[in-house]
Amino acid sequence: MNKFENGFMLGASTAAHQVEGNNTNSDYWLMENMEYSQFVEPSLDAVDHYNRYEEDIKMLADAGLNTYRFSVEWARIEPEQGKFDEKEIEHYRKMIKCCRDNGVEPVITLMHFTSPVWLIKLGGWDNEQVVELFANYARFVTEQLGSEIKYICTINEANMRLQIGALMERFKKQMMAKMANAAKSSGDSMEGQVQVGLNLSDPMEKMKLAAMENAKVFGDPQPHTFVSATDANGDMIVIKAHQAAKEAIKAVNPDIQVGITLSLHDCQYIEGGKERADSDWNEEFSHYIPYIKDDDFFGLQNYTRTTYGPDGIVPVPEGTPMTQMDYEVYPEALEHVIRRVHEEMPNVPIMVTENGIATADDKQRVEFIDKAIEGVQSCINDGIPVIGYCHWSLIDNFEWQKGYALTFGLCAVDRKTQIRAPKPSLKHLGGYLK
């Protein structure tokens, strides 16, 4: 095992809503508890990380890891517009202290998909007002916690809204084709084309009823949450929010390292597919470069590859190993994406903020980690400034619309008792540090 040099940040990631439990003021909480919800189950207590974070952080440190990337929940900190909850900010202060006490570097994410309900009622992430509102929130968090942290990710997977927009366009075309009896049975799962847990199995009638319920709850049949489809204008709002938050953070503490994270596929192609592959890579990454090239670091998130042909995305060949998320098992993708990002944005250090595999077989997870880490180390040996690797995820958790069935974690949880059971992969990952 080739080990990382001292100073390399090696750890694991979580997101508040997926692990804390009872985030009752968030948009997701309302949506997952609706009668006609597209969620297969509600989050409820999740894995009770809100109360058990000390145990979880100590578990991470005891395995040999030195970094924990987690998100602070906007809906907890600002449950009503302009009203900040001192008790909740104190909770995250205690989490940061717990990290420090255990020799763990905390990496904070300000926005990991979930938003306060009040924000969505104002028009959510398609309302320009969100730029100022997010900056205000970022400023408050930095004023309260900024002396205790070195790294902040403003927005998790800022390109997710565009990715979902493209996916939904393909979904609509597929549904229309099926209604016209023109669809071919390819066995291709569209849910595996974005790196977030989506459920596209609901019948159209249920979707209509859900839209009616959304109108009652949010005042809009299609509320503009962060994980809803958008266009180029909505995409630019997200980027403006990142830039405004960065400015607010730096005004309070210029020493904090600020970056953004993007969801990136390894865009490969066969004959006739290069133009489409390049176009999708531009949408996923390249068009953001002018807005993030001066950031302190870049948060790179990758799980798999996408292959393009003359007719678009090429279905994965039958018999190819697949994850529980319907991604192709392809850990080599991480190295490819790191190299491509560095080639196009050479002056920004890269932190791998998410990379992992949804599987019930922990031996497969260990093999995935080994191959992914081998790729990271190859990049470092070639002089690419990769400063950290955070595996997704520390704990099996609530995978959004997919619920609890998918297991990404380095640690299992009995959700009846909330008892933790670290998997061999956790200590294996920690073994890569000297």
UniProtKB/TrEMBL annotation:
Keyword Hydrolase part of the UniProt annotation: yes
Transmembrane segments: none
EC numbers, comma separated: 3.2.1.21
Sorted UniProt keywords: Glycosidase, Hydrolase
Broadest EC class assigned to this enzyme: hydrolase
One Gene Ontology term from the biological process aspect of the record: carbohydrate catabolic process
Any coiled-coil regions, as ranges: none
Domain of life, source organism: Bacteria
GO CC terms in record: cytosol
GO MF annotation: an example: beta-glucosidase activity
Pfam family, one: Glyco_hydro_1
UniProt record similarity statement: Belongs to the glycosyl hydrolase 1 family.
Protein name: Beta-glucosidase Bgl1A
